[in-house]
Amino acid sequence: MANSRGFFRALSWANQLLSYQRPSWQCTSCKVTRSAAFRTSRRYATTSGEASNKPYYVTTPIFYVNAAPHVGHFYTMVIGDVLKRWRTLTGDNKARLLTGTDEHGMKAASAAGIDTQTFCDQNCKTFKDLAHAANLDYTYFIRTTEHSHKDAVQYFWEMLQHRGYIYTAKHEGWYSISDETFYPQSQVHLSLDPATGRKRMVSIETGKEVEWSSETNYHFRLSAFQDRLLELYKTGFITPEHYAGDVVKSVSSGLSDLSISRPVQRLTWGIPVPGDSSQTIYVWLDALVNYLTGAGYPFPPGGGSHLGWPVDVHVVGKDIVRFHCVFWPAFLMALDLPLPRNVLVHGHWTMNREKMSKSTGNVVNPFFAIDRFGVDTMRFFLTFQGGLASDADYDNAHIIRDYKKYLQQGIGNIAHRTIGCAKGKLRTYILNATSGNSPAQSHDMAYQSVLEQLATKVADHMEKLNPRAAVQEIMAVILHTNKYFHNSAPWENPDQKQRVIYNVAESMRITGILLQPFMPNKAKEILDVFRVDSSKRSLSDANYGSDADYGESIEKRIIFPPLVVEE
Ligand code: MSP
C-alpha cells in the first residue's frame, strides 16, 4: 500500500472519478435505476441545508447476521417502530423507518461451512421475518451487501479522502477480533476469565478480549473533531442524557485518529477501499453509512431531504453508543453533511441480571415469545418494562403479570363492563354527554380532567423520546379508570350512570387511539369494538369529548382473552 502522499500522487481525485466504474445506481427506497449521467453529476454533491418539510426519519441499528435474533433485537426494532408510528399518528404520513442487516466482516460463515453470501441471505431472512412478526411498519429493509450500499460507502470514502481526512499509517493498539475494532489504552483493562481463570485484556465497554496488534492501514482524522463533538453534545444529541456523561468524558479526555481499514487478509468479506484492493473498509464505517444509503445517498446536488436526511432519531443499544455518538457524527462533520438530530439509547434486556447475548447464549427467541403471548402483548411488555436509562430483567412471569393487570383486567375488563352496563344505550349516553345533557358530579369532573390531559402528557413523553413513560402514562389511566368505574358504581346510581359510562367509554376511545403505535392490532380492536370511525383515530382525535359519532350498535367482544399457557 502506498503512503498517503504517494497514494494521492498516483491516483489524483479527478483520475479516481474518471477511472472508477460503477454499476448503474439504484435508489434504495424507490428502486428506480438512475442514469450514468445523473451519477456523474451527483458525485461532487453535498447537501447544503435541509428542506423544512423533510420526512421524519427513524432508524434501528442494522443487525449482525452471524447469529439468530433474540429479544434484545426485537426490542430495538419495536422502539424504532413505535417512534415512527407515533409520528404517523400525529398526521405525518411521510415518516420513514429504516431497519436491516449488517452483513460484512462475517466470520461465522466459514464456521458454518457454507458460502458467505448464502449464509447472509439465510440469516438476513430470519431478521426480515422478525421485522414482519414484530409488525414493523418499516419503509425499507437495507442490507449492507446491496450494490447501492457498496456504492454509497465507496463514495463516502472518496469524499473523506478528497477532503484530506484519510491518511495511511502504521497502527498499533488493542484489537478485538469479535468487536472488529481497536480500543485505546483507556478503554481496556485486565480481567479474569471466569471459565479458565486466565488473566486477559478486555474492552471495558463490551467485555470482549483484545490483543496487541500492529498493521499499516488507512486512518480517519477523528482527533480533528473533538471540539465540534463536545459542542454537539450540548445540544441534547444523546437521549437519555444519562448516557451523555460518559461520552463527554471520553471525548474530553482526547480522541485518537481512527483506523478505518483492515488488510484484506484479515477482513475478506467487506467493501474494498477504492483504488486499493489490499485493504477492506472498516466494518463500522461501512455499517454506519447504511443510514445514508437508506436516504438515497449520494444525494443529488442540493438534495437529500426528500428521503428524510438528516435522521431524526437513531435508536441504539447502550453497547454501540461510541460508534453512533463519536465516530458517526465526526464522519458526517468531515463531509459537512447535516447531522442526525438525536441518538436514542436504550439499556439491555438481561436474564438473571446478565446481558442477553448471543455469546453468552442466554437468549430468548422472539418468535417463540410472539407465538406464546401474541405480538401486541410483547410490544406492550417490551416498551412498558424495557429500560432506556437502565437495564431490565426479562421474565415470563412479568409478562403474564402485566398482561393480566393492565390488558386483561384493565382494558379488556373496562371495555366489557362499559358495554354491558350501557345495556344498548351507549349511543344515547354519548349524544347526551356531547350535547351537554348529562350532569357530572365532582368526581366525574376530576376523572374527566385526567382524560383531558392524557394526550398532551403522552405527546410530551414521545416528544422527549420516552416511549416507556408514554405507555406507562396510558396504563396509569387504565388503572385509574378501573377505580373510577368501581367507586362510581353506575349500576347502583341511575342518575349518575350516563356520565360515568360516557367517561369510561371515552377512556377506551382515547387510550385506544394513543396505543396504536404500541399495540397496532389490539388498539384497532378496541377502536373497532367502540365503532370509532377510521377517519377519527389520529392524535388530534384523542381529546375528551371530541368525537360524538362513535358507539353505534356496539357489541361485546373479548379483546384480551385469558392466556392459554400460564407459568
Ligand atoms: N451491527 C451492529 C450495529 C450497526 S448499526 C450501524 C450491531 N449489531 S447487533 O446485532 O449486535 O446489535 C443490534 C442491536 O441490538 C444493538 O442496538 C444492540 O444494542 C441491541 N441489542 C443486542 N443485545 C441486546 C440486549 N440484550 N438488550 C437490548 N438490546 C440489545 O451492534
From TrEMBL:
Enzyme class per UniProt: ligase
Enzyme Commission no: 6.1.1.10
Start and end residues of each Methionyl/Leucyl tRNA synthetase domain: 56-418
Keywords from the named record: Aminoacyl-tRNA synthetase, ATP-binding, Ligase, Nucleotide-binding, Protein biosynthesis
Boundaries of every Methionyl/Valyl/Leucyl/Isoleucyl-tRNA synthetase anticodon-binding domain copy: 449-547
Pfam families: Anticodon_1, tRNA-synt_1g
A GO term for molecular function: aminoacyl-tRNA ligase activity
Source organism, top-level taxon: Eukaryota
NCBIfam families tied to this protein: metG
Family (UniProt): Belongs to the class-I aminoacyl-tRNA synthetase family.
Protein name: methionine--tRNA ligase
Organism: Aspergillus lucknowensis
Lineage: Eukaryota, Fungi, Dikarya, Ascomycota, Pezizomycotina
